[in-house]
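Severity: low
Component: inverse-folding endpoint
Summary: output formatting inconsistent between runs
Steps to reproduce: submit the following structure tokens with default settings.
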């Protein structure tokens, strides 16, 4: 069977502590994925669960791509001796995580002629590996809060918010992540100054700010608990904060990491600081600033995933030509559907 006939699914796990809150994820594209987690788990358990869930959720010819040598070597090398030796290691110790290894190996064997496994180096710039890493981290962070007995908090992972009835999903997101503000959350994101007339005051930026103000005022009539979510990046996000002030609608500044404004000009930093100070609430997602451009890109991508997940509605300021926003639009559209508005500058 040719490799190009198989669906390629990437997997990853993440954990904080051992044990600690963790998350797992699989994805074949930004639109086709699954994720979940556990409040008390390990990284290896999450890596294993990600592969198991990927196999269970994707029938037919499949290539599972992972960055865990522990899982790949276990599937392709060690498991033969484990089973032969009654689930004992060479050192005569019980195999750890047997409760996940056994169903995973059974799932592999049931489809042994149509499943292949590949390894990819983690954090090496592979787009899909980065995506599942980000999804797993989001789940890990959600499970930092106490997880109760709902479907979405199913012990052992596997539960997804999407398993809940739509009316319950909003409350469940907030229960699982205390950083999500109260209220009806309208996310405003979009193009940077280079696509909005430049860094200085200009007619395009003024027009976008005015349109955002009108949208916010209209939405406040529908949702009296309206809150605007903005990351305050230069461009549409800063304009959204200013539009919220003009519309007298509270906004929440969501900062990806400390000193997010460190590379801005003095004038832009002053504008940023002023808008942070006017926010009803400031949410900082990560404790450490990125050390280089690659870390910056990944941190901002994690921020985008968090914003997409937290929002009840979204406005994306986008000309539908700047391909830097293709992925963000796809994620928002998959998550929000008709509750996503694309505003052309």
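Observed output (run 2 of 3):
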């Amino acid at each position: 069977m040719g490799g190009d006939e198989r669906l390629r699914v990437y997997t990853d796990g993440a954990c904080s502590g051992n044990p600690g809150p963790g998350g797992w994820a699989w994805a074949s594209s930004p639109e086709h994925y699954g994720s979940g987690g556990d409040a008390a788990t390990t990284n290896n358990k999450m890596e294993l669960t990600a592969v198991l869930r990927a196999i269970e959720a994707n029938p037919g010819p499949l290539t599972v791509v992972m960055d865990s040598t522990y899982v790949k070597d276990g599937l392709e090398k060690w498991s033969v001796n484990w089973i032969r030796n009654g689930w004992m290691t060479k050192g005569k110790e019980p195999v750890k995580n047997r409760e996940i290894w056994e169903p995973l190996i059974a799932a592999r064997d049931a489809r042994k002629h149509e499943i292949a496994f590949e390894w990819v180096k983690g954090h090496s710039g592979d787009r899909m590996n980065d995506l599942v890493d980000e999804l797993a981290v989001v789940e890990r962070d959600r499970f930092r809060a106490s997880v109760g007995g709902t479907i979405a908090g199913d012990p052992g992972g596997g539960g997804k918010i999407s398993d809940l009835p739509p009316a319950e999903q909003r409350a469940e997101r907030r229960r699982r992540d205390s950083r999500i503000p109260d209220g009806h959350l309208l996310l405003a994101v979009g193009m940077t100054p280079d696509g909005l007339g430049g860094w200085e005051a200009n007619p395009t930026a003024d027009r976008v700010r005015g349109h955002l103000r009108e949208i916010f005022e209209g939405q406040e009539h529908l949702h009296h608990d309206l809150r605007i979510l903005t990351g305050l990046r230069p461009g549409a996000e800063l304009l959204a904060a200013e539009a919220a002030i003009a519309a007298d609608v509270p906004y929440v500044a969501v900062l990806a990491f400390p000193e997010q404004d460190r590379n801005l000009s003095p004038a832009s930093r002053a504008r940023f600081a002023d808008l942070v100070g006017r926010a009803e609430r400031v949410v900082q997602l990560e404790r450490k600033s990125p050390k280089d451009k690659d870390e910056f890109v990944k941190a901002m991508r994690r921020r985008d995933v968090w914003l997409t997940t937290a929002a009840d509605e979204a406005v994306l300021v986008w000309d539908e030509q700047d391909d830097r926003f293709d992925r963000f639009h796809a994620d928002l559209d998959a998550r929000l559907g008709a509750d996503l508005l694309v505003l052309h500058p």
